[in-house]
Amino acid sequence: NPGLSEKDKKDLALLKKTPEFQKVKAKIMALLDEKIDKFVLDQIRPSEDEVVEKFEEIKATKEFQKAKEKVIESLSDRIDKYVLDHFRKNQ
Predict the structure, then answer these.
(1) CA-based Rg of the chain, rounded to a whole angstrom?
(2) Record's superkingdom (predicted)?
(3) What is the 3-state secondary structure (H, E, C) of 34-61?
């Protein structure tokens, strides 16, 4: 360990053998692991602008438009059936 005096190195060697040291080190490592994961995720996660831009590109495709039309058609049919059933029950 750079920056440690000889006394620190000896004390550390003795402490490393204790369960308390291992417990504290495990907690610190877990915290660091979580922080590192978040840092890495933040580095690779696209920005909101990038997501919006990509979504706009996808929305412009024929495949998206066809899929959207199918969903709207399906919803429209279901709504028509629901309204028809509602009127039949109330007559």
Answers:
(1) 30
(2) Eukaryota
(3) HHHHHHHHHHHCCCHHHHHHHHHHHHCC
d(CA 67, CA 28): 49
Instruction: Report the SS3 class of residue 4.
Output: coil
Q: What is the pLDDT of residues 25-46, one digit of tens each?
A: 999 999 999 999 999 988 898 8
Helix axes 62-89, 48-59, angle to 10 degrees: 80
**Residue 52: how many CA atoms within 13 Å on its side-chain side?**
3
pTM of the full predicted structure? 0.43
Cα angle 30, 32, 34 (rounded to 5 degrees) comes to 70
